[in-house]
Amino acid sequence: MTETSRGTRPGRPWPWPLTLLLFLVGLPALATAQPEVNMIKSIKTVRSAVELQLTSSRSFGVRNALVVLRIGTQKFTKSRSPEDGSLNTLIFTLTADEFARTAPGDRVTVQYGDEPGWDFGTLDKRLLDKKAE
Amino acid sequence: MRRNLRVYVLAGLALYLLVGDWRAAIVSAQLPDPGDLGPYDVTREEYNFGDTAFTPTDFADLVPPARVEVLASVHYPTDLSAAPFPLVLFLHGRHPTCFREDVAFLQWPCTPPRQPIPSYQGYDYATELLASHGYIVVSISANGINARDNSVDDYGILARAELIQHHLDLWAQFNSTGGDPFGTKFVGKVDLNNVGTLGHSRGGEGVVRHFLFNAAQGSPYAIKAVLPLAPSDFNRAVINNVPLAVLLPYCDGDVSDLQGVHFFDDARYNVPGDRAPKHTLLVMGANHNFYNTIWTPEIFPAGAVNDWTAFVVNGDLDPHCGTVPGNQRLTAEQQRGTGQAYFTGFFRTYVGGESDFLAQFTGEAPPPPSAMTEQIVVSYHPPDDPLVRRDVNRLLSATNLTSNTLGGAVTQTGLTPYDLCGGERPQPRHCLPTPPQPTARQPHTTPSASVPQRRGLSQLRMGWDAASATYQNELPAGAGNVSSYFALPFRASVNFLDSRNPSAVPQDFSVTLTDGAGNSATARVRDWSAALFFPPGQIPRVSPGTPLFPVPKIVLNTIRIPLSAFMKVDLTDIRTVRFDFDQQPTGALLIADIAFADAVHPQ
């Protein structure tokens, strides 16, 4: 299972007095802030295809623009939501050939167009058909 | 209504004072407002054949097969005695499908106690208005498609086309023998030889695909007008021989590359003899979602967002589209106003055959008061008919840098660069350096998902360093009688990235016609068009490492100078059309589609 986390999305520049104020006054609140958690939950062979189930604590918006899975330099666009309809999970479908062309250690991201999106770290192909522990 | 008329007269007077053009002033002063309520009382009903009543062809192959709902709202004149009425069909775009309290989901059918999100009801503000003018307006639900469309090759676009056709088949039945739930109410009341379609977002691509699908079935329904609203264009379908208007919200945070402009660009010269007019409507300050009330925060509790601030990183900081003081964003109400004015005006023009509103789609008249903003700029491509359009220079290939579409010589002085970009090879794919400039800033050349290699709009890329620069097209013998045309239109945009354009300052230049006797007449662009505005938006990054905003954008809009502006030249013997870049010391533009167009208006 691959898991990465990162802070909030890239932000505007913070004036340093505000940062200091937050540090002094808001330290308890900052301590409880939840970082974004992204995870490749499973990689499964389903009939002749391979499905990657990705989850994030930040929901995948339902948009008209196309959501794209990037593994290394390759792009994949066939996806669906899980049966429970959760917007925190996306399941991408790759053909077996497409999955074979990916390499262990390839960067895995999900994004809309050129926009920054969700970072899932690197691909661990040993997850293929590995039963959840 | 009386108030609106007064405002419109005042707008016409202001236009007269501003540009001194009696013609434009009269045009705007005389026009009724398409956003005014019509004479018919309106009834609203719904029909619902169930959540799994229809299976699109390529959804049948999914595992498990995906079935979708057949559900719609209908607005129609309460008194049907004046029927048959034309039918206009609306199709919403992609959005969450189910909700419980304030949480949204994407599944179909919805698992109880979750309820469907009624996206199809989000256009009631416009469908009711259109119905009041004597239309049967049907807005169909497509939640089932939204739940599975990313699983099929074309992202559900054919499925949407088939769903539209299924609803039209139902209306053919309602119109012939009748049927549940309406009984015989609509028998003989629906004019299926006068049908219009409007689709939002993926629904916009859906109505384009539907036009082709219906044609492939032998055109059982006469589609008279197609309006893609903030559409996706993943598959680059092209439609011709049907009036088209593509509405592009400048602050679209979802389909932020405005890829739907391809529908207009690709169709222009695609079919010789295409008699259908084409339009784009660039609505400054508008976002993607506010055209649907169900997608608008504070109206619906779940799944509704302001797409610009929700999807564009730091988007709130953009000076035009953001929330900072002085921003130019439209409110949701204003945005719906633009919809009421332009949806209604378009269908009343091309489905209803009314002539009063055409001027707002050609750029000859300003937006009507019901639009609630003046910041709408248009492109207009007249029909391919020698009586109404003579192309001077289509600017499609390198040949057109030296020889125009009519075969006349093309010359320039002082322009650098002077080349074409965005079109077929060997032109550079984009007109701005990409990367670092995102394609979202260049809608005309942004790639489409299914055909990423396909090129975009060929544009003349040029700039000047001194006010003596010129660009001239000669009209060869036999092509110089332009007296039957009303205007000289061309499309242009300010290149925001070229520092020769002062930031936030509109560009301007002169257009000169010279006749065979050597007489010349000149008109300034700014006197006739606001299309050379400096595209708004924050150009540099907010901070290092953050992405560039999707704005500013280069969108070419039509500049349309009436030939009446060129006094004292013989319009039966014009020899040259010259652009003199003499109004600003430096500048840089992108230009396309230079023509003479439109029959002279009757006096």
Care to describe what's here?
The complex is a heterodimer of chains A (133) and B (603). Chain A is α+β, with helices and mostly antiparallel strands and 133 residues long. Chain A contains three helices and nine strands; from the N terminus they run E-H-H-E-E-E-E-E-E-H-E-E. Chain A has a five-stranded antiparallel β-sheet. Chain A has a four-stranded antiparallel β-sheet with strand order 5-4-8-9, with no helix packed on it. Chain A starts with a strand and ends in an 11-residue tail after the last strand. Chain B is 19% helix and 24% strand. In chain B, the strands form four sheets. Chain B has a nine-stranded mixed β-sheet with strand order 1-2-7-3-8-9-10-11-12, with helices on both faces. In chain B, helix 6 links the parallel strand 8 and strand 9. In chain B, helix 5 crosses helix 6.
Q: What portion of residues of chain A belong to β-strands?
A: 35-45%
Low-confidence residue ranges of chain B: 1-26
Distance between the termini of chain B: 27 Å
Q: In which range does the helix fraction of chain A lie? A: 10-25%
Strand arrangement across the biggest beta sheet of chain A: 1-2-3-7-6
Shape descriptor of chain A:
globular
Calculate Rg of chain A over CA atoms. Answer: 17 Å
The major pleated sheet of chain A works out as: 5 strands, antiparallel
